Amino acid sequence: MGAGLAAAYGTLGAFAVRFLYPARGPRREWRFVSELARLQPGQSLSYRTPTGERVAIARHGTSGDASDFAALSSTCPHLGCQVHWEPQNTRFFCPCHNGVFDPQGRALSGPPADEGQSLPRYALKVEGGLLYIQVATERVA
Ligand code: FES
Predict the structure, then answer these.
(1) Residue 106 burial class via C-beta count within 10 angstroms: exposed 0-12, middle 13-18, buried 19 and up
(2) What is the CA(24)–ligand 1 centre distance, in A?
């Protein structure tokens, strides 16, 4: 009976610790991507985060602020293939099952559209003519 009580209190204690100290998200930082002038409207580049995620960063506008750009995960939310930017079609395309996404990452056709899956977005900012992206710097176990 003593062992049963100890196990019950131990489990209760573990739940109390998790309640009082919830797991926090991954640490995030702003990282340099490019000088604005090096990425013209219609162009894109591939960026790899410190945790190994691939991000497609495309420029669509000329205002000179972060709204000109979209930074989207290059990993298709359907089954994980790599998407790429097609400037001639103004879209992101996944060749595995013909998934199509608009410049903001919203699924337009193919399995991602059928399942309502969009490309995850990353925050961007412009400071002093330089483009920065906010990324996780550590993986959460
Ligand atoms: S993995 Fe991209 S559409 Fe299937």
Answers:
(1) middle
(2) 31
